[in-house]
Amino acid sequence: MKKDVIIKIKSLIKKFPIGGDFFTALNDINLTVRKGEFSGLVGPSGSGKTTLLNIIGGLDSPTSGEVSVLNNLINETSHKDRALIRRKHMGFIFQNYNLLPVYTVYENVELPLILNKIDKNKRKDMVYSAVESVGLIDKIDSKPNQLSGGQCQRTAIARAIVHKPTIVLADEPTANLDSENSFHIMEIMRKLNKDFKTSFIFSTHDEKIMSYLKRIISLEDGQISEDKNNK
């Protein structure tokens, strides 16, 4: 695999059992992603984009085919090793934020660093840097129920990027946000992509996100229907 290739998918098929039969969610997916890309899996609900994102993140397994992420064959990797890859090299942003309600912004963002056994003093600098990058220093001691939807999503972004991952996977990150907040969220992620060469892969059908993407990978009925550079 070439040095700058971080994801390579060959002949991927994913089937789910339904009753006595199978539903094919992904059919013959072939895809290569390079470091620093700002790309999106786009398509209507049921097109397979979230399933593909979950397989890239090691949260699901392919039925057949080959999926290599950061030189690790996901279909031949144990659950424990997948968890280690996610913890060290990936960040996740979900449409429902997935913040721990009893934790402050600081504590939510710090969690990946604790899991990665980062020294406490170093953690503090890393958390403050991540929270500052999303413009939430004034809310660092607040809990999620004291934040707006946009502030919760910014906290989720800070948590996703605090350990400077190689890949950030974002599943419909602006689905619950208004246009103004969506704009701010996308500007933050575009700056992080530019400053740190973090590779972002979105799953979305939101036109607001699509206008920011440098590469659009369109999915339809579980297949890639189009793969084009956007800018």
Name the overall outline: globular
Rg from Cα? 18 Å
Query: By CATH's scheme, which homologous superfamily applies?
Result: P-loop containing nucleotide triphosphate hydrolases
Structural class: alpha/beta
Question: Which percent range fits the helix content?
Answer: 25-40%
- Which CATH class applies here? Alpha Beta
CATH architectural arrangement: 3-Layer(aba) Sandwich
Strand order of the largest sheet: 6-7-8-3-9-10
Distance between the termini: 26 Å
The CATH topology turns out to be Rossmann fold
Continuous helix count: 7
Q: Give unreliable regions as ranges.
A: none
Number of strands: 10
Largest sheet: 6 strands, mixed
> What is the residue-mean pLDDT, rounded to a whole number?
92
Work out the strand percent.
25-35%
Sequence of secondary-structure elements: EEEHEEHEHHHEHEHEE
Overall structural domain count? 1
What does this structure look like?
With 231 residues, this protein is of the alpha/beta class. It has a single domain (37-62, 78-229), classed as Rossmann fold (3-Layer(aba) Sandwich), CATH 3.40.50. Helices cover 34% and strands 30% of the residues. The chain contains seven helices and ten strands. It has helices spanning 49-56, 79-89, 105-115, 120-133, 149-161, 179-196, 207-210, and strands at residues 5-18, 21-34, 38-42, 64-69, 72-73, 90-94, 167-171, 199-204, 215-220, 223-229. A six-stranded mixed sheet has the order 6-7-8-3-9-10, with helices on both faces. A hairpin with a 2-residue loop joins strand 1 (5-18) and strand 2 (21-34). Helix 3 runs parallel beside helix 5 (149-161) and helix 5 (149-161) packs parallel to helix 6. The chain starts with a strand and ends with a strand. The model has no long low-confidence stretch (mean pLDDT 92).
